[in-house]
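Handout, section 3.2

Students often ask what a structure token actually looks like in practice. Rather than define it abstractly, here is a full record for Deoxyguanosinetriphosphate triphosphohydrolase. The first block is the sequence as you would receive it.
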Amino acid sequence: MKVRERIQNNEKLTLIKYATFSNSSLGRKVKEKEDDIRTVFMIDRDRIIHSKSFRRLKHKTQVYIKTFGDHYRTRLTHTLEVAQIAKTIGKGIGLNEDLIEAIALGHDIGHVPFAHNGEDVLNKLNPNGFRHNENSVRVLTKIEKGGIGLNLTSEVLDGILHHSGFSKLSNKAFTLEGQVVRYSDKIAYVNHDIDDSIRAGLLNENSIPEEYVKTLGKTHGERIGKLVEDCIYNTLNNIENNKIQVSLSDEIENCLSGLRNFMFKNIYNGEILKKERDKAKFVLEQVYLYFLNNPNKMPEFYRSIVEEEGLYTGVTDYIAGMSDDYCLCLFNDLFVPKLVIF
């Protein structure tokens, strides 16, 4: 028996019947020979973690732009925290951890420089709009490996596409594993952004509304623990009552939503960070417009996208793939005067 077959047999013994079994995957766009050791979702996880776009996440902003402290989150550390939370929830429910990990590691791979500030700029300047979840799928299917893509499974791509959105009306992933990542993303970023904001001196523990502290807990760890526990038990209760979906209880979901609204009002859209957000948007907009007017200055790969899919698509792909530092360096090269006469 191959190792992969043993792993697949273990899935049948340990996962609930509503989990996604690796030997029942809908498969890849291009069919491949099965691996002797790894299941299809293990292969997807490995392909994502070894990709260039994944490595660039370490220099992409989560919330705080150009921070010099070692402990502020980046898009990469956010991704790792989402994966950890999601795997815990998935294990508690009895779902496929390898699928969960692959979705979690790839969910933000399409994020742009300067976090959601950059996303707003690209959405405004590109006539087709821009959404980072859709771009994550594009990066993994059409940008990576020189345009070949990583040839990931349908389940992973669907989970990545549907990880975004807080509303109950948002489209859900067709796997429970994908739905777990969607909740884990919210649990991670709301709580670690509070932690970073306290570290930055913009909030303190007493700033958090008492109603949420009373229900979720006073510390970072207590809040995440409560949310993870509720997600596991509420989902198991859903399944027991033939409601096959991942969710929080109404009380806990209202608290998480309230905390998120609190962060939008005071931090994400707050006045304290507005000046830096506006600077980041200005930088990105100028770089975008420069390459829109000078597409021949882009690398050959992106020029070929311009020829095949149009100017805006090629420029958007180039800009979206940049890290914060790379974008700032380009801005300096393009627009900041240099000392040329001594």
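Discussion prompt for tutorial groups: The chain has a mean pLDDT of 93. How would you have guessed this from the sequence alone?
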